[in-house]
Amino acid sequence: MEHFILTTMIILGIILVISIMMQPSKQQDALSALSGGGSDLFQTQKSRGFESVMKHATAIMGVIWLLLGLLLMILQK
Fold it and tell me: Among residues 26, 23, 28, 15, which one has the least CA distance to residue 53?
């Protein structure tokens, strides 16, 4: 059982990293943050479409990964 959970965590961790990397950038480039391009930094925009799906999928996978880690810790005691 522990090997199955550990394998699932490794696979889910890889998928989680890929989903984080696939999310669109909130900032166009690093220079715009220093040159005053961050004036709309505090304006909230609702994510839509692909961005929304990736945001929710990443959050759900992160919670599942955390719960699997806790379960693995309990089983190893």
Answer: 23
What confidence tens digit (pLDDT) does each residue in 18-38 have?
A: 999 998 777 655 555 566 555
What is the rounded average pLDDT for all residues in the chain?
A: 84
Could you tell me the two tokens for 3? Answer: 């090997």
Please tell me the pTM assigned to this model: 0.71
Q: 9, 67 in Cβ contact below 8 A?
A: no
DSSP string for residues in 18-59: HHHHHSPPSSS-HHHHHTTGGGGTT------THHHHHHHHHH
Structure tokens at 2: 């522990």
AA letter at 47: S
